[in-house]
Amino acid sequence: MGKNNNEISAVNRDIDQIIEQKPYIAAMLDAFRPIILEKNRLLREMADSRTTLAVDEVKYRGGIPLIRQCRLFFPEDPWQEMALAVTGAIRTGFPHLAGDMERLAEQLKGGLVDPYDYFRSSADPDENQIKAWAEKIPIDPGALRFFISIMARIILTKRAREAAAAIAPLPWDKGYCPVCGSFPMLAVTREKGQKWLQCSQCSHEWLFPRLRCPSCDHENPQETNYQYVDNEKNEQAFTCGKCRKYLITINRPANLEKSDLDITAISLAHLDLLLQNQGFTPMAVCAWNTF
Length: 291
Ligand SMILES: [Zn+2]
Ligand SMILES: [Zn+2]
What we know:
By secondary structure, this protein is α/β, with parallel strands linked by helices. It has helices spanning 2-21, 26-45, 57-61, 79-93, 98-109, 115-120, 127-136, 141-167, 261-267, 269-277; strands at residues 184-189, 195-199, 205-208, 224-229, 232-240, 245-251, 281-282. It has 2 domains: 46-167, no CATH class; 184-282, no CATH class. The longest helix is centred in the middle third of the chain and has 27 residues, at 141-167. The radius of gyration is 19 Å and the shape is globular.
């Protein structure tokens, strides 16, 4: 427990440090801070699942992510505990959603809503189910969507960690995530110029050719661009001339590996704004890059 508390304090300090360097991002990082801290805490305290993920090697080699092969949301996941922690974190960081989150928390506590119901049947967001649920609670559908996306990110991050060893030896050359099928929120360039894509949902990372577009597979150095901002050479944006998507890319030497990439991604939201003003769209829509 003590170790977990220390690690959570370290995440808190990382956020403070970035705010010191980039005061313009303070409001956004402070809004997401409770969610980031709860996600870290829940993941550290969550027991490993008893279910083993069955990876079908042939399907995997054919580009089918795990989420289309087997169930990634389990009934034994700590749904109630997670849901109450997430509603609390949203309430603290986003005061305009406080009323919605309080109503949702009441329903959860009374056993009138089981968050697992939402994840039981489908891997994709189900708009009809969100609408029906939102009406029943009642809660704003946008607030419910936000809650569900955070819950999905936490469980999928846990599953990606559990699946990592099994899929590590298998080849994957797609621009979408081998675990959950989502597009990346960030790319990290490491030694020898290797580009590692970071999943926007489950935080899994995988190696990808530097000049190829993860979104449309187009590879043409003339139309592919790396833009620098304010001479900050460690923070760039990859842009694709064909599909007009962008991906924020950072240089990360091995000794700077430890920090939480959600914090990094949110702290670069000014680049998202810049690129979107140039007519590019993000490869993955995240809660912090929709303006
Ligand atoms: Zn993923
Ligand atoms: Zn493209």
